[in-house]
UniProtKB/TrEMBL annotation:
EC number: 1.11.1.27
Keyword Electron transport part of the UniProt annotation: no
Cited function: Thiol-specific peroxidase that catalyzes the reduction of hydrogen peroxide and organic hydroperoxides to water and alcohols, respectively. Plays a role in cell protection against oxidative stress by detoxifying peroxides.
Lineage, opening ranks: Bacteria, Pseudomonadati, Pseudomonadota, Gammaproteobacteria, Pseudomonadales
Catalytic reaction list: a hydroperoxide + 2 glutathione = an alcohol + glutathione disulfide + H2O
A matching Pfam family: Redoxin
Top enzyme category: oxidoreductase
Keyword set, alphabetical order: Antioxidant, Oxidoreductase, Peroxidase, Redox-active center
Keyword Oxidoreductase tagged: yes
Species name: Pseudomonas fakonensis
Protein name: Glutathione-dependent peroxiredoxin
Occurrences of domain Thioredoxin (ranges): 2-169
Length: 169
């Protein structure tokens, strides 16, 4: 598992924009380490789009706290799940994300594997997924990592991340 003080792996993640008002463009890949270079980024990951805790508590919490996180110095908030970019985009449209939280695909589980944070959810028909966690990344370096125990939602929430940022101020 990645540790505080380590650099993010150089892995490609994907984001899709349905092309509102124009022609849709397919999923766009980007290097997560490049995207975080010279910036303070919160990355929170969850087992999957449209799942109960993720939809009812995790994403809504980050949306509710987004402005406070930005005021505390965060440049961007990324929500990552092992779903394809089309699913992440559709899921994001069910929330009033308004550009506050970027819905990011790790469809091949490459980032999750490189972070050492994959879990096998095959017994529940979900295949390989991400553990629920939150990272504070500063210039590509992990400054805080909170991983929830399986089936729990206690450490990776937005309020906890805001507390970490406020303690660092």
């Amino acid at each position: 598992m990645i540790k505080v003080g380590e650099h993010l792996p150089d892995v490609t993640l994907y984001q899709y924009s349905g092309g509102e008002g124009g022609c849709p463009v397919g999923p766009q890949g980007f290097s997560v380490s490049e995207r975080c270079k010279g910036r303070k980024v919160v990355i929170f990951a969850l087992p999957g789009a449209f799942t109960p805790t993720c939809s009812e508590r995790h994403v809504p919490g980050y949306l509710a706290q987004a402005r406070e996180l930005f005021n505390a110095g965060v440049d961007e908030i990324l929500c990552v799940a092992v779903n394809d970019a089309f699913v992440m985009d559709a899921w994001g449209k069910t929330f009033p994300t308004q550009g506050l939280v970027q819905m990011i695909s790790d469809g091949n589980c490459a980032f999750t594997d490189a972070m050492g944070l994959a879990q096998d959810s095959s017994a529940r028909g979900m295949g390989r997924r991400s553990q629920r966690y939150a990272l504070l990344v500063d210039d590509g370096v992990v400054r805080h990592l909170a991983v929830d125990a399986p089936g729990k939602f206690e450490a990776s929430d937005a309020q906890s991340m805001l507390a970490v940022l406020q303690a660092q101020a």
